[in-house]
Amino acid sequence: MTSADPATPASRPGRRADAERNRAAIIEAAGQVFAEHGGGVDVREIARRSGVGMGTLYRHFPTKDQLLNTVLEQQFDAWLTAAHQQAMATADPWRALAGFFEQLLADHAGNRAVVESYTATGGPSLSCIQRCYDCIDQLRTRCADAGVLRPGITTDDLFQLSGALSQAVLTTAESHPGQWRRLLRISLDGLKSRNTDPLPEYGTATPQPRF
User: Name one Pfam family in it (predicted).
Assistant: First the structure.
């Protein structure tokens, strides 16, 4: 192979750099489009916004599900890192917990695909779910140690509550946008330590009223 050969190794780094730029552009555009329209959007809109052809898009992501999963994973990881740092930097335990929920739901309210993913696949990957659970556990422990959390509240309670409120974001987005803030305030009020009534045990049936 001579130095004039067009297939010399010297040309490969440039092609790899172009491929990486295209991939980054696709992921960035997909993040915006999925957030606005959800996972059902036509990938042609993603290709248009990213400035690449459909062939280039499919070379990087053969299926829309692969692209969606990549985008959601990156977004959730970035959000969780920022939320955890902010919560740990907040001195007041209750404000840290409330702020975490506020940030979680505000993020979901602005990203339709994230909330849809909870219904379709159960949410992000197991590793991200575990990181989120661990963060909530830290916040719960801080609040319990400070005496500001209702007795009997577990990390599972708070984790399940985050999922339920995330679903509320999706179901009320069209009819009552922003209602999640009201639901969050009601939920947080029920978590405060002034509420001392015993909580039902896990796995027990809800008592039926007697007339």
Answer: TetR_C_43
